[in-house]
Amino acid sequence: MGEHIVSAFDHDLEKIEARISEMGGLAEELLAGALTSIETRDTSLAEQVTARDKKLDQMEMEIEEFATKVIALRAPMAQDLRLVIAALKICTTLERIGDLSKNIAKRAASISKLGPLPTTPSIIRMGRATQAQLSEVLSAYSGHDTKAAVAVWRKDVDIDEMYNAMFREVVTYMMEDNRMIGAGSQLLFIAKNLERIGDHTTHIAEMAYYIQEGAPLGDDRPKGEPVSPAID
Amino acid sequence: MGEHIVSAFDHDLEKIEARISEMGGLAEELLAGALTSIETRDTSLAEQVTARDKKLDQMEMEIEEFATKVIALRAPMAQDLRLVIAALKICTTLERIGDLSKNIAKRAASISKLGPLPTTPSIIRMGRATQAQLSEVLSAYSGHDTKAAVAVWRKDVDIDEMYNAMFREVVTYMMEDNRMIGAGSQLLFIAKNLERIGDHTTHIAEMAYYIQEGAPLGDDRPKGEPVSPAID
Fold first, then answer.
1. Is A185–B229 a contact, with Cβ atoms under 8 angstroms apart?
2. Would you say A68 and A158 are in contact if contact means Cβ atoms under 8 Å apart?
3. Alpha-carbon distance A147 to B231, whole Å?
4. CB contact under 8 A, A189 and B188
5. Measured distance CA(A83)–CA(A214) in Å, rounded
6. Considering only alpha carbons, which residue of chain A is nearest residue B83?
7. Which of chain A's residues have a Cβ under 8 Å away from the Cβ of B226?
């Protein structure tokens, strides 16, 4: 944690890391709940996810306020400053992951009114892979594990590929059966939201790397084939 | 800009504001170009938008680096610190607006292969409204105009409503004509990207408000009717 010896300052930095980890844990729970609500068509669980997203918004504001105070009062330098600035960025990213999870959960209500959807297993598989990535990047962050952060960052290509496959699968169902169009559109948005959560996860990986290394992670992350109709 | 008299510091803060405005101008250009590429099915313009998005990524990194240096070397306080922290947040938001614009432009290529799409005028209308919001929030930011920032923030509800109307319109076309499903899915994503750009614009409005007022803008922003299938 650097060379400084001001213990109140150490305590502040530890508190920032702890709050980010706590917020990350809640974001992961919301994503897990959203996926279960789609899988089991549990609209009351979907409502819980929506309600708990407010807590995430509040945590974001608290972290922002505290991090700003730490900058103003302690004038952190080098890695300490990077940790505080990364916290300001990561808390916004986690808030967006919560928003996207809430958005997925809200679609459970629309989907619950429809007949069986043949694509549900694929979307849940994609969702659980996204959730695993989020979980791993949070561990990499709290364990200051740069290697693990890079590994998560590289693996996002798998999520992108699942998204492209999912897009083609859903559009095919929509073309075969007109009654699938409403539900299919919902599924396309759920897949897109998961793909975005994957992107946000790589952003956290970049921040975890930046804190430790003091340099950006680079711009050559492999991406899923962009030629398909799904695009990015 | 506060009471301090260190002129090199004033210069740093002005530079941060100028770079954010410059970056905002480029983000707005990319959005405008993306919309024109959809409207006129101009795939070479779409490619230009994609290429210029790299410049936006580079500007984000430069602003982050400079803002971090300013915090470390000048230890800004109060409104000055808020300006620097807001810049760190706004540059990420502008980078995302660029990404979403690039994503819209990429869809021009898919759409250009298809027959006439009856919904193009609606999506362009929604796009131009989103672009106007972005332009207004950037003026509010550079003019330190809190009232204008709040006005933009409140008007995002119009974008949300256009998005919901658009969603229903496109799904109706898809149901009436199966050959519209591929193009319709592209249009749904374009509409969703515009709605997200609208959300990012409100985030810039919140930051412009926070710099001047030192308090969050509040959480009671009106939102478009969430009961429709489009959701959020």
1. yes
2. no
3. 38
4. yes
5. 10
6. A68
7. 106
Q: Give the three-state DSSP class for A2.
A: coil
Do the Cβ atoms of A185 and B185 come within 8 Å?
yes
B61 interfacial to chain A (CB closer than 8 Å) = yes
Query: Which of A 138-157 lie inside 8 A of B, CB atoms?
Result: none
CB A91 within 8 A of CB A24: no
B65: chain A residues, CB-CB within 8 Å: none
Q: Which residue has the higher pLDDT, B223 or A153?
A: A153
pLDDT band at A45 (very low <50, low <70, confident <90, very high): very high
| Distance in angstroms (rounded) separating the CA atoms of residues B176 and B184 | 11
Looking up tokens 């949300």, which residue turns up?
B160
CA nearest to B118, candidates B166, B64, B54: B166
Domains in chain B, CATH or no CATH each: 7-213 (1.20.58.220)
Residue A68: count of CB within 10 angstroms of its CB? 16
Residues of A in contact with B85 (CB under 8 A): 64, 68, 71, 88
Mutation to test the B interface, candidates A181, A187, A202, most B Cβ within 10 Å: A181
Task: State how far the Cα of B169 lies from the Cα of B163, in Å rounded to an integer.
Answer: 10
pLDDT digit string, tens, across residues B111-149: 777 666 777 888 999 999 999 999 999 999 999 999 999
For residue B206, which of A85, A207, A23, A95 has the smallest C-alpha distance?
A95
Q: Say if residues A152 and A136 touch (Cβ distance below 8 Å).
A: yes
DSSP code at position A180: G
Taking the C-alpha atoms of residue B122 and residue B163, their distance in angstroms, rounded to an integer, is 10
- Residues A182-224 pLDDT 10s: 888 888 999 999 999 999 999 999 999 999 998 888 755 655 5
User: Could you tell me how many residues make up chain A?
Assistant: 232
- State the Cα–Cα distance between residues A70 and B218, nearest whole angstrom: 23
Place of tokens 């699942």: A162
The model's confidence at residue A41, banded by pLDDT at 50, 70 and 90, is confident
Determine the distance in angstroms separating the CA of B167 from the nearest CA of chain A, rounded to an integer.
Answer: 9
- As a dihedral over the C-alpha atoms of residue A154, residue A155, residue A160, residue A165, rounded to 10 degrees, the angle is 140
Using the beta-carbon criterion (under 8 Å), do A57 and B219 form an inter-chain contact?
yes
